[in-house]
Amino acid sequence: MRCLLRRAQPLGHGNPACLPRAYHSYDHPPPPGPFGVTEKAILAAAYKHVPEHGFSHRALGLGARDAGYLDISPSALPDGTFSLIRYHLITQREALAERSQTLFGQDGAPTGVGGKVAALTWERLLANKDIIHRWQEALAVMAQPTYVPASLKELAKLSDEIWFLAGDKAVDPSWYTKRATLSMVYSSTELFMTNDRSPGFTETNQFLDRRLEEVKSIGSSIGSIGQWVGFTASAGLNVLRSKGARI
User: Fold this and answer.
1) What is the pLDDT, as a whole number, of residue 214?
2) CB–CB of 115/103 below 8 Å?
3) Contact call for residues 168 and 178 (beta carbons, < 8 A)
4) pLDDT digits over 139-152, tens only?
5) Cα 84 to chain center, whole Å?
6) What is the pLDDT of residue 224?
7) Domain boundaries of the chain, sorted by first residue
8) C-alpha to C-alpha distance for 101 and 219, rounded to whole angstroms
9) Rounded CA gap, 84 and 1, in Å?
10) DSSP secondary structure string, 59-121?
């Protein structure tokens, strides 16, 4: 059996390049997109309403109308408002590849894998700037038990994408550690950003630098699934309290 070039690494032992696993292959066409034609049309139109209406049924209804569908059309989306959140996560992750070409092709571009990881992480965080005032509401949805697995999967894909675009080629056990750690650095920085009112999110940038420096000095993973759930659940509680819930 011929081994293909893969993005994801295996769980288990043996040759990490030849065990079965989900993978990114340059020899096969990419799988179908995550959204159908109607879904994509509604979500793309609804996304434009997120800054004003949040990741909400109102935004979905307006998006359906803008895309030429009946207002009831969003009910066809299997995950409701989480579909809109997932649309944001997927489209911004996929956009990183193109943005990285510009980012690394300019004068003074970061060099080395570590520098590129930091630059890409910051670039992805900046992609939240137009909806960051709505992101705690999104985190509250993502923290619901039904959506935690899908949310964690998207976070893992983002971390893998950043390491891949930065040129990481490691196939040893550090593959897992680096991605788990970056996932936690990213999620904690993203949550910090929801409360940052500094110009250009400079305080968030400094927070990110500190977390990355901590990882570098500690030399080990600082995250876990429980920590991510803790971050998002905390954000969710804050949103509910802000809406008058007595909790």
Assistant:
1) 85
2) no
3) yes
4) 999 999 999 999 99
5) 13
6) 45
7) 111-242
8) 29
9) 40
10) HHHHHHHHTT--TTGGGGSTTTHHHHHHHHHHHHHHHHHHHHHHHHTSTT---HHHHHHHHHH
